[in-house]
């Protein structure tokens, strides 16, 4: 047997709105957790323990892969892992 609850229409609409907000937040969290993290130039340099100049030289020589959109540089986790494997370096990636 189901319980029946009588609410003013404004309360019902507030509850519906709250549920909708929760569903939207959950969808955003799910999308964010599925998004690939791209490391910044600073993070890359810290992980590899190199200077920004060395990172720039490696990019120019094709030693490490990267993504560039306009002036923004990012490194994929697999770019860093491939570089580490190639040179036998252990890196701690999140």
Structure, explained:
There is one protein chain. The protein is mostly helical and 94 residues long. It has a domain at 38-87. Helices cover 59% and strands 11% of the residues. It has four helices and three strands, in the order αβααββα. The chain has helices spanning 9-34, 41-48, 52-61, 77-87; strands at residues 38-39, 67-69, 72-76. It has a three-stranded antiparallel beta sheet. Strand 2 (67-69) and strand 3 form a beta hairpin. The protein is elongated, with a radius of gyration of 24 Å. It holds the Pfam family HTH_17. Residues 38-83 form the Helix-turn-helix domain. It comes from Spirosoma profusum.
Q: Helicity level, as a percent range?
A: 55-70%
Number of helices: 4
As residue ranges, the low-confidence spans are: none
Query: Major sheet: order of its strands?
Result: 1-3-2
The amount of beta strand, in percent, is 5-15%
Shape: elongated
**Main β sheet profile:** 3 strands, antiparallel
Number of strands: 3
Structural class: mainly alpha
Distance between the termini: 50 Å
Element string (H = helix, E = strand): HEHHEEH
Alpha-carbon Rg, integer:
24 Å
Mean of residue pLDDT values:
85
Summary, kept brief:
By secondary structure, this protein is mainly alpha-helical. It is built from four helices and three strands. InterPro entries: DNA-bd_dom_put_sf (IPR009061), HTH_17 (IPR041657).
């Amino acid at each position: 047997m189901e319980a029946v609850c009588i609410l003013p229409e404004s309360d019902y609409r507030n509850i519906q709105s709250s549920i909708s907000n929760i569903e939207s937040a959950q969808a955003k969290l799910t999308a964010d957790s599925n998004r690939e993290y791209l490391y910044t130039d600073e993070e890359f340099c810290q992980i590899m323990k190199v200077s920004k100049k060395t990172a720039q030289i490696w990019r120019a020589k094709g030693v490490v892969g990267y993504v560039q959109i306009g002036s923004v540089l990012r490194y994929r986790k697999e770019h860093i892992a491939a570089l580490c494997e190639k040179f036998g370096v252990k890196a701690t990636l999140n």
